[in-house]
Amino acid sequence: MNRLFTGSFTNVIKRIPALYFNKQKSFVRKSTTASSISSNIDSVKDLSRPLPPYLYNDPSVYQLERENIFAKNWMYIGRLDRLKKLGDYLSITLAGYPIFIYRSPLTNELVAFHNVCSHRAGPIVPINSNNYGTALYGNQSLLKCQYHAWLFDSRDGALKATPNFSYKFKSDEKKCLSLKKINIEIFAEQFIFVNLIEMKEKSSIYTLFSDLLNDILAFPLNEYRHFESQCHLINCNWKTYAENYQEGYHIQSIHPLLNKTIQSKQYLVTNKNNIYSVHYAPSRNHESGQEKFLWVFIYPNLAINLYEQGYSIEHILPIGKDRTILSYDFFVRSTDDESQMSDRMAEAKEAMIRTLEVTNEDKMICEQVQNNLDAGIYKPGYLSPSMENGVQFFQNRIRNELKHTNLQLE
């Protein structure tokens, strides 16, 4: 769940979508209360049931999710401001798909390819093997395979050279040996997204996230600078962790320090356009001045936690049917005032420490839930219409994207 503590950036830990606080007022959607959400529930028949447990531990399900969810949605990859120089690259493995973004030295444009050479499947740019393929930034002057040094054009991925191969490919043969290009879009001037299927089959990310754009651009994204990345292995299915993020029902039981800061019983999730969720929880201290902030979960696996003085990105990366990498990037708002910058860095690092404390609490409960899902005992109960509507949104998207398979989804 990894939400931030409300209050100043120092007190923030995890993310919770689209709430705005300041000293004058708090922004909350009117008439969105727990009682109003549940008032039209007359019987248990109206309640939603969770997904069946085998969807969290069957290897064939994970493969279908790779093909029908991660290969077909716009997926977050990384930040534009970390790819400024010619030859800069970002390498990442997303649900088993090795991908890289590259700033072409020939055009100064960003291009995206599958990180797989057409010769014998070697990587074109290095892969972060020590951390399960999580984001790796670097610089490489040429698109040259790490394995046998085949060379590719940085504009379109066309094959250019095959050293010591003893055969010269004809032009029509070379076309079949190009790198596989990937659709790429930049959202809110900073966030890089890719889509692995043909562009004609998908709407632009700006069309999908149009309502979210103004909320994100209310923050000075160009003024933030990256100061640390961390990744954590969690022994659970990626959905187990994402669903934990999508509700505040467990805060009172699992996060005692966070529960002292926010009114967890008033925790609200607002699902927007069947694409993302905005979370809200009022502070227990009504007198405290709170800076503007935005917590948003974007389906299927991204959370962004924006504050005026800093923010974090939480990337939920599946690496198997029952293992997930939680990848964090932390940013702080820069200033030319050295003393002020020093204070901001100290606050940012304190916030990061608190974030990781909550992460450890989530890791503990998610791994225990996964063990119980694997035990063969659990049969799905019901979802709370007021406290788990974010989970319902998430699971309904899963059902919709897997409905064309032979899986039992109820």
Automatic annotation (TrEMBL):
Organism (species): Rotaria socialis
Taxonomic path: Eukaryota, Metazoa, Spiralia, Gnathifera, Rotifera
Catalysed reaction equations from the record: choline + 2 reduced [2Fe-2S]-[ferredoxin] + O2 + 2 H(+) = betaine aldehyde hydrate + 2 oxidized [2Fe-2S]-[ferredoxin] + H2O
Keyword flag Iron-sulfur: yes
Function as written in the Swiss-Prot or TrEMBL entry: Catalyzes the first step of the osmoprotectant glycine betaine synthesis.
Domain of life: Eukaryota
GO BP of this protein: glycine betaine biosynthetic process from choline
Pfam families referenced in this protein's UniProt entry, alphabetically: Rieske, Ring_hydroxyl_A
Keyword Iron-sulfur carried by entry: yes
Annotated protein name in UniProt: Choline monooxygenase, chloroplastic
Domain Rieske: 74-163
